[in-house]
Amino acid sequence: MLKSALQIARASYAPKMPSVLNGNVKPVAGEATTAVKDQEDIARLFPNIYGMPIVTFEPSEESNASETPVNVGVILSGGQAPGGHNVIAGIFDGIKNLNQDSKLYGFILGPAGLINHKYKELTADIIDEYRNTGGFDIIGSGRDKLEEKEQFDKGLEILKKLDIKALVIIGGDDSNTNASILAEYYSSINAGVQVVGCPKTIDGDLKNEQIETSFGFDTACKVYSEVVGNIQRDCNSARKYWHFIKLMGRSASHIALETALQTQPNMCIISEEVEEKQQSLDDIITEIATVVAKRSEMGMDFGTVLIPEGLIEFIPAMKGLIAELNDFLAHNQEEYDLVRRSGKRDYIISKLSDENAEIYASLPETVARQLTLDRDPHGNVQVSLIETEKLLAEMVKAKLDKWTKEGKYSGKFATITHFFGYEGRCAAPSNYDADYCYSLGYTASLLIASGKTGYMSSVRNTTAPAKEWISGGIPITMMMNMERRHGEMKPVIQKALVRLDGKPFQYFAANREKWAYETAFIYPGPIQYFGPTEVCDQPSITLSLEQAK
After folding, report:
1. What pTM value is reported for the model?
2. Which one, 1, 273, 294, 439, has the greatest CB density within 10 A?
3. Domains of the chain, each with CATH number or no CATH
4. What is the predicted pLDDT for the residue at 549?
């Protein structure tokens, strides 16, 4: 593998981890747990793994060494997130510490590798090539879902053949939901295979009291903040453009909020606030146009607006429309596909309720078409394909043109639009993510050694020095509730949205008016891997504010 100078230097970086993991440990169980919602339904669906306690690893006088090798399989599931390679390195080092003859097998291109028996053994030579690097290219990732008995049984065949005793699924909320379904099934048939999850998603929407943050969020936000900061410096230099910047985060606005905290743009829309205030699309446009007009009066015909990827689904009227579209297409996709392109818009309008038909008919042709494009594997509209940043820029211009005719605005308004998503998914992990991910992987190996299944690896207290981090596991069913998917109610991990009463949003809300008019841009610069701790190892501002005493 060809390596850059940075990658060569990073190869020698030894991730920091909780001091408890440097010696022998024992799992200490807490109280029994319950699902976050819909407890009766979740308990009925997961009778073998529901209600298990949270466990925390504490020092032990007994050795963790295993007399027999512990073979483990690992799957990277869903979209990429910085740090995945370090999770795998942590698992590898952890099982080798249990027994040097233990083996780690990686299933190729996600869950499909398990189903289709595509795998490779991950040896020390391979692992060492990927330590502290970005991407998922060590084995690749995929979005296939493990949901059917046939898939479970097919996967079990290769697990038995390779004598794999445990499977680690590294993924987001949906992937870890599938991990719990698999754990339940293998427990119900006494398959002798444990299933452990690791919390991955740059969107930051997989978190709770035990899962402080999902890995990759820190690195991705630092990458986006660097680029947004660069744009803001250009914006402040040319002083003639408004930049509308869409950022990843379809179900929550954590990335947009964190990037705003790091860069202090003139405006940042938070989807959860839009929903809470029951704002219409016109309300949002008017809000942006008002800031543009006031800045123009101050002689500043330039600025930046941050937009979360999933905004369109949080506008109440649009949310209702999209929900009806999802349900309709889940049951009528084949019929819709047969309709000629020129007639698809009228066909959809004829099938919707009167209220949603009116909303759909009012949308620009491009947005209406984007709302009916192929669904994601969960049956939801692919909001990343909706060019919200262009829609808002065009609608703000139309609003300002109207105000110009009415004599309310006389400034200049030129726009440039951006969408930052893939730019951050495979970045080399920050020191925080490199350390956090390695600790998550090592913790997963200890959950396996402790005989746990249906658990997610958990590392907490991560705003403190790494030696003080707390390692353990949380039952996946504890995070679950019932949601509608493909027109049916199914168990899923509840997404963590931006809390409007939380410290990160409150800090943002207290400062956004100042940022709107004072041009208080911050230019974070690139991720730093070497140098003073306060420069290299700091966690996200979101996490720092949440954990502030």
Report:
1. 0.93
2. 439
3. 26-216+429-493 (3.40.50.450), 218-425+501-525+543-547 (3.40.50.460)
4. 66
